[in-house]
Amino acid sequence: MAIEGSTEKREARIRLGMVGGGSGAFIGAVHRIAARIDDHYELVAGALSSTPEKSRQSGAELGLASDRIYDDFRSMAIREAKIKNGIEAVSIVTPNHMHYPAAKEFLRRGIHVICDKPLTSNLADAKKLLKVAQESDALFILTHNYTGYPMIRHAREMVKSGELGEIRLVQMEYPQDWLAEPIEESGQKQSAWRTDPKQSGAGGSTGDIGTHAYNLGCFVSGLELEELAADVHTFVPGRALDDNAHVMMRFKGGAKGILWCSQVATGNENALKVRVYGTKAGIEWSQQDPNYLWVAELGKAKQLITRNGAGANAAAGRVSRIPGGHPEGYLEGFATIYTEAARAIIAKRKGEKVEPDVLYPSVQDGVKGVAFVEACIASSKRNGAWVKA
Amino acid sequence: MAIEGSTEKREARIRLGMVGGGSGAFIGAVHRIAARIDDHYELVAGALSSTPEKSRQSGAELGLASDRIYDDFRSMAIREAKIKNGIEAVSIVTPNHMHYPAAKEFLRRGIHVICDKPLTSNLADAKKLLKVAQESDALFILTHNYTGYPMIRHAREMVKSGELGEIRLVQMEYPQDWLAEPIEESGQKQSAWRTDPKQSGAGGSTGDIGTHAYNLGCFVSGLELEELAADVHTFVPGRALDDNAHVMMRFKGGAKGILWCSQVATGNENALKVRVYGTKAGIEWSQQDPNYLWVAELGKAKQLITRNGAGANAAAGRVSRIPGGHPEGYLEGFATIYTEAARAIIAKRKGEKVEPDVLYPSVQDGVKGVAFVEACIASSKRNGAWVKA
Amino acid sequence: MAIEGSTEKREARIRLGMVGGGSGAFIGAVHRIAARIDDHYELVAGALSSTPEKSRQSGAELGLASDRIYDDFRSMAIREAKIKNGIEAVSIVTPNHMHYPAAKEFLRRGIHVICDKPLTSNLADAKKLLKVAQESDALFILTHNYTGYPMIRHAREMVKSGELGEIRLVQMEYPQDWLAEPIEESGQKQSAWRTDPKQSGAGGSTGDIGTHAYNLGCFVSGLELEELAADVHTFVPGRALDDNAHVMMRFKGGAKGILWCSQVATGNENALKVRVYGTKAGIEWSQQDPNYLWVAELGKAKQLITRNGAGANAAAGRVSRIPGGHPEGYLEGFATIYTEAARAIIAKRKGEKVEPDVLYPSVQDGVKGVAFVEACIASSKRNGAWVKA
Amino acid sequence: MAIEGSTEKREARIRLGMVGGGSGAFIGAVHRIAARIDDHYELVAGALSSTPEKSRQSGAELGLASDRIYDDFRSMAIREAKIKNGIEAVSIVTPNHMHYPAAKEFLRRGIHVICDKPLTSNLADAKKLLKVAQESDALFILTHNYTGYPMIRHAREMVKSGELGEIRLVQMEYPQDWLAEPIEESGQKQSAWRTDPKQSGAGGSTGDIGTHAYNLGCFVSGLELEELAADVHTFVPGRALDDNAHVMMRFKGGAKGILWCSQVATGNENALKVRVYGTKAGIEWSQQDPNYLWVAELGKAKQLITRNGAGANAAAGRVSRIPGGHPEGYLEGFATIYTEAARAIIAKRKGEKVEPDVLYPSVQDGVKGVAFVEACIASSKRNGAWVKA
């Protein structure tokens, strides 16, 4: 990034494949835009749907060459690993339960994987995927996209450098309202698989958005969860998975936190919010207004830091494309994950070391996320008993 | 209220005494302003400090006649109950542990009591006070002042009339930062008694501000707590009482909630916030911007209702003094409690029935608040087990 | 003020009379609350309406002794000046055209005048009133109430002490929407006299609210207007006075500004806003959120200063009653003007010098305001030619 | 756009060239990202700098084939018009004075032009360019990028469909602070050409940002300017062009407006704001929070419409990529202009009619912008006399 006032020395684009993301899928389109924004990728192959016909049609619509459109991810992995100029990386944007089987095929063949969250639909799969990833020379990048926002980078850097003092509190919330009514019953595709345990796993709101909030709280605070006590609930009658969760947390080292995620909080679109309070300063960030970060030093007036504006630190500037006052949004944050991945992939390609400031969510972060979901469910089943993370 | 564009037919002012609130006390001055704003009271007597000399000096400074300045609340109750034109009502603004002994003396003598919160420093006293109040013909008003804000009245009315549908979630938070450091050690008066179990009771932040948030959540939602699970904590080393609490709640009827109160959340002045989400609509209110209420009907754009503005309902207008766009604040909200009390006291004086729209926190609300504090402590001692409210 | 944590040494209350402010008048009630909040006044006499019967009824409703209710202001001035314990000060809250004749009667008899704005309905009267005031030993206080807001005091102090550097721009705006339709035609009292040239003078929105914005811009910036060019307009058909004005300004010393006032800007309740930009820093303040002041030093992150919070200066703290995070509003700001007046009046009473930090709008400020209105009208008649202030 | 939940049927990408935008240029990089986001373009040729060596280096960095990197725009136009698969469109992102000569070369050869604003550095050139464009079969698109924001489309549609009633007021402001000090003297490239009359033309802030605000006010309101009165000023000593302007406006049909643009308003990053008030409703939009639109119907509570959220209209949804609550920013708004252009270009390519909802700023809009700048300067030279637009 850092494109402000410059062209960039460009390496050849990374040849990218995609699993899932065909017609009717929202997140696939987001991944494709994210991959394009900083121009480090070229989409050249796809197994875009579990229905071969739909895969072919979607591939054609996206302008893929017909011999690079596959009926299933396995054939794609096999062939792309063999052909000249086969894909170097693949984006996996299927429902959760397919992440592990798909990722495995590519990692084993040395193809880098960029995978949507949560990592898998259950902890057993997550651990298997961890092992596969550790045994592979290929990279694994999990798109906890909110970690790509510049002001989140700013916040994390502040904590790391001690500007907040000792962290006492990490408050995370992620309310939405799009599942306030049982829209899955009328076949709305986004909600159908997200409320289906077979495709999503044991967690509903906890898996879909709780993991984002949890990941972000840890990313910013640098803390690790020790244990949690949860009250996970389903408000909409007939729904199989949770649509609201209240979670109390204790972090290693003594900090505490609350996490609230909900898909029935009427009036909330995508109101992810993280607040971290330390002995010296506190910070507050809201995803819906992502170009701002509130910073309050104890005993001083609050400051409103703006992305790439006066007061923004180098960690924020590094992942910023345009000047302060010119808002960047969700797609740019997502693109940053792709660009961080590209930096790592290109370093690999050239046999170089990845620069130390390259930062993306890892398979380990993914395992933690799935463990979080299962701990929430377990605690809730035991009526909110504290469960080790 | 409803003074807009009119004078008001005025009854003779209520003769008021005060217990506590001498030199160095913050909340006493607030009560005096609140009593003056709508002009229903006249302060004529006081036992303003437990130190007789200080009481006398403070009384003189306030312009009280010297024979109406008392060394202690008991002598005040005894004499004022006897003399012609003695006080009709008394404001009790002492530290918590004195609320019960003081209130008792006045209630037993038929003098109305306007008492600061929390009701008492422990549940045993609270129950005794409840009994005394029930046996007395005098009124008891608890100054959970935040219930006096017009937009809180608007919110409550919306819930009552079903505009939110069935309530699912009540989220309460009350972060402050003024106790982020051990300022009580340097003798700062406000913090000294609030962190002293002998004067405050078992709860620190839970008693001081948690009770406000809890009362407000119940006031708006009309719900009753069934059980809670709490993680109550003291972050500042050496402090005897809690300065942070995380509480998960289950309300009768199936709604759920979180309550977070903190006095170490750096950057928060007095950030009380209540959010209520139902099946049909959700509302959000923040004490620091009290003239606004966010209302979101499911599937419609959010509305920002302003106090006495277009869209404000009659319950809000009833306790509003000036037009929308002319902000009213904390003191006006507090004054509304005094004015509601005055309506009831004057009705009593005239032998009339209190109008049904008069609304103020009662001794029962106070008992619930103290029970809430003790339940938080009890749950926390049992490592967050669910405890009946 | 500065009541936080203390009682105040109290002088005997100032005996106050009121001219205007009877039944149906909004601003009279505001003045009465403002006079009560800090407890420096006691309302003891009134000529509350130009209709004697209404005056008497209103006086009774306010609890005035019957011999202190007058049929007209002149009899009130004459008698109150003679009797023992007659009024020391009078509040004049009539329509504009009565300010001069009423004020004159009291000033000439040594009774202090607290007068609503604008000073008079025309510049000739304003200059006569200036002369009367200068010849009188009594004080004259103009209730440009917005100058009483703590964050406005903060802002002014910042400019004065050079924190903004050299001022370049003063942007004032005051949009409302309550006159977007011809409500005066249906006899709504507030609008009826405000749109009547006989009672208001030559200015409609310019006089009613433009003068507030202009006064505030000058109060904060410390600048004096040199010349203006105005486009004054009436949007609502059949209305005799302006309901919108655009004004370009040049201040002495080279700063520039824009003033926009409107009573037809749909969606604006009382959106007075002042922004001042200097070579070193800029500030922004909005009346509807008065407890906040944005401060931006060139090249640094913006700060949000809160009333009486960390970062608020002594000038703001001096006129603040309660801690930061406990919002004060319009009535408290108005009360500050009354309290500043009380400080001056009590100093006079005691033969002492008024403390130098006492600050209230003067008769000279009032003359400037009326001159501003007439300059706007004059410029507009000459199609926006620049007119000396 | 409208990619939510779908792939898109894709036409072959438009072959794009670029003039200007080499190393050190900010806006060139923005255009390139904007062209990529929706994947309708492929950058294949460039004359990226007036210095041939720099053009070559920049082209190589961007991965252009060496025979498609040109020393100057004229050779590029000549050759690309001849070769097979030459460019179909060109982006012109040079300083203002080169827009006309460059655009002419391409338009005359039937190559579509996407040109940065303002149209030209003077009105004479603007009129010549208009003529060239009218005589050409190629399209001309001016990147007044702010018209691409979804909530701006929403606002425009509201006005068009009569939801605001008759428009009375259009208030535009565009304050920045990056030129508060003479940074051009130290050679900062962005400021150097913007403050140089030879490259920018007669307007400084008026041309650079005033034209944006003016264009946006007209775009939303649908009004045409009749005359203006301006006070244009240079605050920073030694600067050749204006850095602040105050403009009063009268629109055809009777509406009025103010436009303020400034590059010395300390604390403002890029605070473009448009407010339109009609007889029935008013709207407010701020570029720094572009996903929101305030809508206030007279006599109702304000609504906060969010991009692609409940309440957003079809005109907003049409140019929205992702769901409400997932903020889109400046780059997406810019990309919308490119995508609208692509729709028109592809229609041309296929010999089809452009769909009627395709909307982009035209060469005529550009002429109006340059005329606006010259009218501001002319009015200001005549001390603010009204000048016809």
TrEMBL record, chains A, B, C, D:
Which residue range or ranges hold the Gfo/Idh/MocA-like oxidoreductase N-terminal domain?
A: 14-142
For molecular function, the Gene Ontology terms on record are: nucleotide binding
Enumerate the spans annotated as GFO/IDH/MocA-like oxidoreductase domain.
Answer: 152-284
Q: Which SUPFAM superfamilies match?
A: Glyceraldehyde-3-phosphate dehydrogenase-like, C-terminal domain, NAD(P)-binding Rossmann-fold domains
Please list where the region (Disordered) is annotated.
Answer: 185-205
Superkingdom, natural source: Bacteria
> InterPro entries per the record?
Gfo/Idh/MocA-like_OxRdtase_N (IPR000683), Gfo/Idh/MocA_oxidoreduct (IPR051317), GFO_IDH_MocA-like_dom (IPR055170), NAD(P)-bd_dom_sf (IPR036291)
Instruction: Name it.
Output: Putative dehydrogenase
